[in-house]
Design brief:
- The complex is a heterodimer of chains A (about 250) and B (about 100).
- Chain A has 8 helices and no strands.
- The radius of gyration of chain A is 20 Å and the shape is globular.
- The N and C termini of chain A lie far apart (about 60 Å).
- Chain B is an all-alpha fold and about 100 residues long.
- The radius of gyration of chain B is 19 Å and the shape is flat.
- Chain B has one domain.
- Chain B has 4 helices and no strands.
- The chains are: A mainly alpha (about 250), B mainly alpha (about 100).
- Chains A and B meet through helix 1, helix 2 and helix 8 of A and helix 1, helix 2, helix 3 and helix 4 of B.
């Protein structure tokens, strides 16, 4: 098992870890660093455009801000339940881990559903990637909005699936396939999520590869590493929420 | 094991609940400031970014547990991130060039 190479308590046999912790955690931190730069670049580009365009649309009224605030509260609460899950894993409380991970997934799923509803509302109002009904001279509003929030929504969705695989393992696969089928057949072909839902099927295929080719009893370290990813997703929203929504509140 | 971060056994949950409440309060402050449009856009951006950085510090330090890792790990991660972001943010000044030159 590769894990043996970096376990504590085998000093003298192997070099002590340079960063004082197990490789998997260092690996996840390095990945998060790279992902921060991806979002950092997107957020910087968005902020630059926002500041340098005097007539940037401000379409987010009371309903939108309330919805986005609830979404923020959902993600913050999901981070709390994630931490509690990690603490449960450290105590080897298996049932507790599953309970807290499912709670985290619930908040994450609520976030995605609320976000999808908001997208549908904005699309219905006429927001498109290269045009919007509020400012004809700012065609980039739609593209920047959908790219930023869409990238984040994808990260949240994949995070929920990741947590599901850690919590439920092979039981997660039929759940993913059923959700994909429901999502696909219950949405019309002019709905962007009719195509986006395929992410669930793709994830089921990838998860199946991982679960069958590398079967493992996920331990406290795996839960902690999944937690790091989840907190990162929350962290990114802490920047998207003010930059995209709070900077564009509708003047009454 | 002196160079290894030690996991606390039977860790208290209180700090995590406190961080969660702190984050909710900071979010509420942000929402009120923005909803009432207290500041002009540029000042609003600065205020929101400061608040967001404070929230990030809470999440990274406590939820992601970085506060309890060894110094070398903290320095490596934070210096790398800040350095890369700074390289991008240097170009923010260019946004004002466009504003002062005006656009048709």
């Amino acid at each position: 098992m590769a894990d043996v190479a970096v376990q504590h308590g085998v000093e003298g046999l192997y070099e002590p870890s340079l960063f004082g912790t197990y490789s998997k955690k260092i690996g996840m931190w390095l990945f998060l660093l790279s992902d921060s730069l991806t979002f950092g670049a997107l957020l910087f580009a968005y902020s630059y455009g926002r500041i340098s365009t005097p007539n940037w649309p401000t379409p987010f009224g009371k309903e939108s801000i309330t919805n986005a605030t609830i979404m923020t509260a959902c993600l913050l609460s999901s981070s709390l339940t994630m931490v509690l899950g990690v603490l449960a894993a450290r105590r080897s409380d298996r049932a507790g881990v599953v309970r807290w991970l499912l709670a985290t997934m619930f908040f994450g799923a609520v976030f995605v559903v609320l976000h999808a509803r908001e997208w549908m509302g904005l699309i219905h109002e006429g927001l498109k990637p290269f045009s919007n009904p509020w400012a004809a001279t700012v065609p980039q509003f739609g593209g920047t909005f959908f790219t930023l929030t869409g990238m984040h929504m994808l990260h949240v969705t994949l995070g929920v699936i990741y947590l599901g695989v850690v919590a439920l393992r092979k039981k997660m696969l039929p759940i993913l396939v059923v959700l994909w089928a429901l999502g696909f057949f219950l949405t019309s072909s002019d709905n962007v999520f009719h195509y986006g839902i395929h992410v669930l099927l793709l994830s089921a295929v990838v998860a199946a590869f991982v679960l069958f080719l590398k079967p493992k009893d996920y331990d406290a370290n795996d839960v902690e590493v999944a937690g790091l990813y989840w907190h990162f997703v929350d962290l990114v929203w802490m920047f998207i929420f003010p930059l995209v929504y709070l900077m564009s509140t509708r003047v009454k | 094991m002196h160079n290894v971060a030690v996991a606390h056994h039977d860790e208290s949950r209180t700090p995590y609940y406190a961080v969660w409440v702190g984050l909710l309060i900071l979010t509420a402050v942000e929402v009120v400031l923005a909803y009432r449009q207290i500041f002009a856009p540029l000042r609003m951006l600065e205020v929101l970014m400061v608040l967001s950085v404070v929230k990030s510090a809470l999440i990274i330090g406590w939820f992601m547990h970085l506060k309890f890792e060894i110094s070398r790990m903290k320095w490596m991660l934070m210096v790398a991130l800040v350095a890369c972001l700074t390289l991008m943010f240097i170009f923010f000044a260019d946004a004002f060039r466009i504003l002062s030159l005006g656009s048709r």
